[in-house]
Design goal:
45% strand, five-stranded antiparallel β-sheet, alpha+beta, 146 residues, Jelly Rolls
């Protein structure tokens, strides 16, 4: 009887620790962004797109973006610049920028990029710029952490 209780207790503790560790490392989603309808970046549709404003809170001082972008053409793949700005009332401060080239399909592998040195408890947003001659569609999420 004692052995059954110990095994049951060990299994319960393992399950609780497994659940706790999985949820402790999950980065919360900060915002969802989407751009284009297959025309963004071509012709006169070259304006930048802004994500909703979000607040980074993690102590690691990082913000990760993960998403897809696609032109539907291997001849002219998607090429998008993602800029992270700290939101300000009078002006915005650029915190980081990356340019992601290539088609990452919605149903395939997605791109991922982590901005470092991001001050916690500040408001941020992403501004996306097209650098492709073909029309681009895409979407993604910003995460609080890795």
């Amino acid at each position: 009887m004692k052995r059954v209780r110990r095994v049951g207790l060990a299994v319960s503790m393992f399950a609780a620790l497994s659940f706790y560790s999985a949820s402790a490392f999950a980065s919360p989603g900060l915002c969802y962004y989407s751009f284009g309808n297959g025309q963004w970046g071509s012709g006169g549709f070259t304006n930048s797109f802004d994500s909703p404003i979000f607040t980074v809170t993690n102590s690691s001082k990082v913000c990760t973006i993960n998403g897809w972008q696609d032109t539907g053409s291997s001849v002219s793949p998607a090429n998008v610049e993602y800029r992270l700005y700290q939101y300000g009332i009078l002006s915005n401060t650029l915190y980081g920028s990356t340019r992601i080239s290539g088609n990452y399909t919605q149903s395939g592998s997605w791109y991922s990029y982590t901005y470092t040195g991001v001050d916690p408890n500040q408001k941020y947003f992403l501004r996306m710029y097209p650098h492709s001659t073909a029309g681009i569609s895409g979407a993604g999420n910003a995460y609080d952490g890795y």
